[in-house]
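Co-fold these.
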Amino acid sequence: MLELKDVSVIFNQGTSLEKRALDEVSVHIPEGQFVTVLGSNGAGKSTFFNVITGAAPAAEGTIVLDGQDITAQKEHVRSRSIGRLFQNPEHGTAPHLTVEENLALAYSRSRGPFSRAIRKEEQALFREKLKTLDMGLEDRLKTPIGLLSGGQRQAVALMMAVLNPPKLLLLDEHTAALDPKSARKILEITNDLVRREHMTALMITHNMTDGLTNGDRLLIFNDGKITQDFSGEGKKKLKPADLLDFYEV
Amino acid sequence: MSTGVIIRAVELGLIFSVLSLGEYITVKVMDSPDLTVDGSFVTGGCTAAMLTLAGFPNLGLAAAFVAGLLCGCVTAFLQTKMKIQGLLAGILTMTALYSVNLRIMQGAPNVSLYAVPKPTILNNPATVLYVLIAIVALIALLMYAFFKTNLGLMLRAAGDNEEMIRSSSVNVDSMKFLGFALSNGLVALSGALLVQFQKFADVTGGTGMLVLGLAGIIIGEAVFRRSGIGFGLAASITGAILYRLLYTLALQLGFPATDMNLVSAVLVAVTISIPHLQKLKKKRGSHA
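Predicted complex below.
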């Protein structure tokens, strides 16, 4: 599904400040796998996501998504098949647009640029989808999304990312800015959606317990490399305390 | 004020409401005021004037709109492809347009349309009000419908949260081209209508147009106090007409017309700073 081969990202290449943010990373992620990604600050987790979406150019190596080499593709072309959620809920939604307009932005585009973005059908669909979140959002379709709480906004952003299921879903610490209760709720919804839609998903987190209790596989980044890779039984046996040893300080 | 004076003010207000509607796209939807306006307003006027003189008044209006689209594209090109900062891009286009506008009018700084081969749609004083109402209503309806389409939604989102749109599969640069082009197309159309209405085109007629259109939007917002595209469009139209009525009143009271740019600028500056001043006041209140 997603295959990185010897991918490097180099900042300030050719200067004295040269830094290999990603250093010849190779990894294969099969379809339907839910992978959690851990690592200390500056270990390369976000750069890993950025090089997949095209926000950071790969200096070396190739990236193949669903059989297609996307290494040279532009960011906005790749984002047709890659959904991404950020830490800041404000990042993923347009505040002055209503909840339904934000959802339509993600959902209705395929019908062509000049067709009406929100018809009765879309409204019904959005209402039904939001109802599954159990947050009362189905009654707030006409509310400008900037008036919602961070957790509610992130829930809508998550819904936007999966309305047209992307080939790959990237979650970049998407619960880190929320209060504990909202964070738990969003994580719950994330698991539900990823399982229900059989999505291939990667989730960066700083919370070791979250990294262990979610997903089928765990990658740990250190200094631009993937230093640990656990899945199946190996992952289940891990304890948060074990993980600390894998962090370089 | 006599009824005749008021009606004439409303007619001019309707013409300038097209300007405000155009600026609504850049100022409100895209959140990036565009100085091209001071040039493209005249470009529209000059284009319409020359075609009206040649016997094609209606084609003149259409051509003015297209000319405005092109002006907007130039600014968008400078901003997106040449990475020139937004306001400067607009100033560059505006400056260049001064020369272009003179070229369009074949070197003449102004042109009179009192003797034209074919009458314009704004020629008959008995019908001009209705013609203008129809034009403005049509433009507002088309804009409303457009902003509810997928493309319109993308344009709005690009102005609302550019970063989000950048990481989605929408090409932000194309949105800028679209927004600036449509905006300046309407601005140029407004300039063209004014020229046909006044039967006179002047190459310096664009000075202060950005602020004038902005004043219309701001007055309308103060009246409506509601958000949403429908209210925004209605506010731009109402505000432009109200502004023109106030302007006429000021003239009747004996203010010289040359003071009006000062009045518009002060009005816009004060209105925009009101929320900030209120915040300051509150802060001071809480410290006391």
